[in-house]
Amino acid sequence: MRRYDVVVVGGGAAGFTAALTARMLYPELSVLMITRSDKIPIACALPYAIAGNRPLEDYLMPYNYASMLGVEILVDEVVGVDTENRVVKTRNGVEVSFGNLIIATGSKPEAYKVEGVELQGVYVLGKDYDKLAELRKV
Ligand SMILES: Cc1cc2nc3c(=O)[nH]c(=O)nc-3n(C[C@H](O)[C@H](O)[C@H](O)COP(=O)(O)OP(=O)(O)OC[C@H]3O[C@@H](n4cnc5c(N)ncnc54)[C@H](O)[C@@H]3O)c2cc1C
């Protein structure tokens, strides 16, 4: 089983920044960031991504920058943490051992429970790339 000094769960603004900062301040540490997707929109930029003319790729978390700094990236979903043995488990069956664990799993938007929210043409602004791409086509 592979061991990392730091494992970060979640590749949003918090997880990305934590992983990057760990590598920048302590380049001797091995850092793994586990993210559900390699295309995570920058949440603050969602309004610009919807309204703008630039490719959606311009509004994604710059994971290539993290890779350049030596952060390893695993695209997968963490489904369990064994704190006693310091192991995280992913949906695809990967097990990784950690020295330190940072959980940065963020939040999910919730639709208002108002009449008509289920109608075609009413969108809930999510943080995932596919939803964003769908919304941009409207
Ligand atoms: C429209 C909008 C505008 C904003 N504007 C600003 C602004 O101008 N300035 C500002 O400071 N803030 C702004 N914010 C807030 C800011 O974007 C959020 O505070 C920030 O994105 C939170 O980052 P996070 O990493 O904590 O969470 P998230 O962005 O929710 O990221 C968490 C990530 O973890 C992943 N994840 C969850 N569970 C797992 C798991 N089990 N395994 C693997 N991955 C997992 C999720 O898929 C997600 O990618 C804005 C937010 C929005 C929505």
Overall description:
- The protein has a single domain, classed as FAD/NAD(P)-binding domain, CATH 3.50.50.
- Strands 3-2-1-6-5-4 form a six-stranded mixed β-sheet.
- Helices cover 25% and strands 26% of the residues.
- The model has no long low-confidence stretch (mean pLDDT 93).
- It is an alpha/beta fold and 138 residues long.
- It is built from four helices and six strands, in the order E-H-E-H-H-E-E-E-E-H.
- The site of flavin-adenine dinucleotide (FAD) has 22 residues, from helix 1, strand 2 and helix 2.
- Flavin-adenine dinucleotide binds next to helix 1, strand 2 and helix 2.
Extract low-pLDDT stretches: none
CATH H-level superfamily: FAD/NAD(P)-binding domain
Order of helices and strands: EHEHHEEEEH
Bound molecules: flavin-adenine dinucleotide
What portion of residues is helical? 10-25%
